[in-house]
Specification:
- The protein has 458 residues and is of the alpha/beta class.
- It is 43% helix and 14% strand.
- The protein binds nicotinamide-adenine-dinucleotide (NAD) and uridine-5'-diphosphate-glucuronic acid.
Length: 458
């Protein structure tokens, strides 16, 4: 079969895999190859056991893989055979040298740029899919155009806005697709190529275009705004706990103002995930770089409140459990950073588990999809940790349950059965406010929701 377009994606992660799978399903006339330096990851993409859990993804991969979607480790060949190249490699927070703990680590991204430069034999459109500091495209162009040969490269910015757990839905029906380009003749031509690809399934009014710099910055600012809402509601949850107000009632009243809106106002143990923290820290770093210290401080506050919220959860547990957690058996319901994913990157559960172990508690972790990652996250840490698939068995003989991930599974358990198997007095700390607190209280639990009055039998 001959294809109208040959597309490459470098980086087969949480973004590269699902994004290209949906692209392949919506554009059967395009041949799409996804490459990665990690052969184990590519093997998993080519197997029945995909490297990530994402609702609906298995189905799409089954329909497209081997038809117009291919996974490979042959990066040079991929670069040579494809004229449109998405780059979705990881851009974590730097852990060393200048900017450690704040700036984006661009080494993976830069190596990719150099590989494209080294292996390209014809002109290419190179599309930044990774989240990058504003002005990174400039550096990409400098690398790609560092020789005088006849090959030309157009760099576009096309940040990804999918959220894990809803990636397929977000990709199939995005709020918007953003494409940044230069306003030059070739920049506009390249932009049109990408607009036409998305137009296969995304309505035209949802495909927006801008300068490359606005596009790069919009991505980081979107994440900063989303995280800011969570820190705002979490900050108020602490005030609710002091004043007997109820955070759910406050969020409902505030969110019904249509200028504010109801979404992303769920109080929690704090946001996790691989991106919010890193992207805000990157924004803070950028602001400081430009001497905008007040702006940097403002955004840094979002991260500080998130740290505070996680620590506050532990402090509340300590206070409620007679100021000692030593030798207490604590069952963690959930380890993923949010429901419907196995991803645990930056999950607040990691922090909470470590802190509980520091306090010499014994922890039992249950999660429907994240136990493998949880094991890796806690490997080598001193303390008593068990991983148990069945949530009923996990809670058996425990003093308390801490709900850390909002899996539907945990909403629908038989809490009478669970209570009967626990040590008394038994308590529940609902870090996600997903349980029927009154019902749990009536069963006999002491219940400690987030941002709501506690229900105790003392
Ligand atoms: P990931 O770590 O899951 O995947 C990145 C992949 O790139 C890895 O498999 C890695 O082996 C590969 N890679 C690194 N260097 C390479 C190279 N030189 N050549 C080939 N492959 C290479 O990361 P992710 O979660 O998919 O995120 C990728 C980017 O997308 C980041 O910039 C992130 O901020 C952004 N983003 C992520 C999400 C998300 O939900 N995870 C959403 C939107 C945007
Ligand atoms: C987030 C953004 O929502 C995506 O648009 C973006 O593309 C992505 O980051 C990225 O750049 O990586 P994601 O981190 O996958 O997506 O998931 P979210 O739904 O945003 O949740 C992030 C964290 O906030 C989770 O820990 C979640 O539990 C928490 N959260 C979310 C709350 O605590 N309260 C809320 O009301 C909403």
């Amino acid at each position: 079969m001959t294809f109208k377009k040959n597309i490459l994606c470098i980086g087969a992660g949480y973004v590269g895999g699902p994004t290209m799978a949906v692209l392949a399903s919506k554009c059967p006339h395009c041949r799409i190859t996804v490459v990665d330096i990690n052969p184990a990851r590519i093997d998993e993409w080519n197997s029945d056991e995909l490297p990530i859990y994402e609702p609906g993804l298995d189905d799409i991969i089954r329909k497209t893989r081997g038809r117009n979607l291919f996974f490979s480790t042959d990066i040079p060949r991929g670069i040579q055979e494809n004229d449109i190249i998405f780059v979705s490699v990881n851009t974590p927070t730097k852990t060393f040298g200048v900017g450690a703990g704040m700036a984006a680590d661009l080494q993976f991204w830069e190596k990719t740029a150099r590989q494209i430069f080294q292996y390209a034999r014809s002109s290419k459109i190179v599309i930044e899919k990774s989240t990058l500091p504003v002005k990174t495209a400039q550096a990409m162009e400098n690398i790609l155009n560092s020789s005088n040969n006849a090959i030309s490269f157009d760099v576009l910015s096309n940040p990804e806005f999918l959220a894990e757990g809803t990636a397929v839905r977000d990709l199939e029906n995005p709020d918007r697709v953003l494409i940044g380009s230069h306003e030059t003749e070739s920049g506009l031509k390249a932009r049109k190529v990408l607009v036409d690809i998305y137009a296969n399934w995304v309505p035209h009014e949802k495909i927006i275009t801008s300068s490359i710099w606005s596009s790069e910055l919009s991505k980081i600012v979107s994440n900063a705004f989303l995280a800011q809402r969570i820190s705002s509601i979490n900050a108020i949850s602490s005030l609710c706990e002091k004043t007997d107000a109820d955070i759910a009632e406050v969020a409902k009243a505030v969110g019904m103002d249509n200028r504010i809106g109801p979404k992303f106002l769920n109080a929690s143990i704090g946001f996790g995930g691989s991106c919010f923290r890193k992207d805000i820290l990157n924004l803070v770093y950028l602001c400081r770089h430009y001497g905008l210290n007040e702006v940097a401080d403002y955004w840094e506050g979002v991260v500080k409140i998130n740290e505070y919220q996680k620590e506050r959860f532990i402090r509340n547990m300590m206070t409620a459990m007679f100021n000692t957690l030593a030798d207490k058996k604590i069952c963690l319901y959930g380890f993923a950073f949010k429901a419907n994913t196995g991803d645990t990157r930056e999950s607040p559960a990691i922090f909470i588990a470590r802190r509980l172990l520091e306090e010499k508690a014994e922890i039992i972790i249950t999660d429907p999809k994240a136990l493998k990652n949880a094991r890796a996250d806690l490997a080598g840490i001193d303390g008593r940790v068990a991983f148990v698939e069945d949530p009923y068995k996990a809670a058996e003989g425990c003093h308390t349950i801490a709900v850390l991930t909002e899996w539907d599974l945990f909403r629908n358990l038989d809490y009478q059965k669970i209570f009967d198997r626990m040590i008394k007095p038994a308590s529940i700390f609902d870090g996600r406010n997903i349980l029927d607190h009154r019902r749990c209280f009536e069963i006999g639990f002491n219940v400690f929701p987030t941002g709501k009055p506690a229900l105790t039998h003392f």
